[in-house]
Write a structure and sequence with these properties.
Elements: E1 27-28, E2 33-37, E3 44-48, E4 55-58, E5 66-71, E6 80-85, E7 97-100, E8 108-113, E9 120-125, E10 136-139, E11 147-152, E12 159-164
Antiparallel strand pairs: 1-2, 2-3, 4-5, 5-6, 7-8, 8-9, 10-11, 11-12
């Protein structure tokens, strides 16, 4: 058209880029990461959770495994994870009690049990050995015959004997015949 200029309108999308982002709070994305969004340009930042040192929510014992709860330290993410703490080998044993008395020749046994899981431990108790009295002569030795001595255990009545040497001859002074 004569006398008129043509005006062309160009429409183009402009992306706003922030020199420094102004992020809002973190929000949990999944079990391994969280996100936060810039309130100016809409940029979304995704990072891994940063877990605290954890808090034991159920102590492990010799009977059961325990649990430890970790919380993400990034602002208001709120993500948590639970870790199993294996059962321990730390038992709570009571005092030793005599299950079987030892004798002079046979060992005895003591036991104790864990008050948490019931595990029983045993240990041997040494035999006491005989309690013999003094030796007494049960057969006198002769010049050519051996003698015998004995003693008796005051606990079980066992008898112990030993042989003594013959006395040998005791000759007088020689006599001329």
């Amino acid at each position: 058209v004569a006398g008129y200029e043509e005006i062309v309108t160009v429409t183009k999308a402009v992306k706003v880029v922030c020199a420094t982002h102004s992020y809002g709070d973190y929000a949990k994305k999944d079990n391994s990461s969280h996100t936060r969004t810039c309130t100016v340009c809409g940029n979304v930042e995704t990072t891994s959770h940063s877990w605290d040192g954890g808090q034991i929510t159920k102590a492990a014992s010799c009977k059961e495994a325990g649990e430890k709860l970790y919380t993400c330290t990034a602002g208001s993410c709120g993500a948590t994870k639970t870790e199993t703490i294996p059962k321990t080998e730390n038992h709570t044993f009571g005092d030793w009690t005599r299950a079987k008395d030892p004798t002079c020749t046979a060992k005895g046994q003591d036991t104790r049990s864990c008050s948490v899981c019931g595990k029983v431990e045993t240990k041997d108790v040494a035999a006491t050995g005989h309690s013999y009295g003094d030796w007494s002569v049960s057969k006198e030795p002769t010049c050519e015959g051996k003698g015998e001595q004995s003693r008796t255990c005051s606990t079980c009545g066992a008898k112990d004997t030993k042989t003594t040497a013959a006395k040998g001859h005791s000759y007088g002074a020689p006599v001329v015949v």
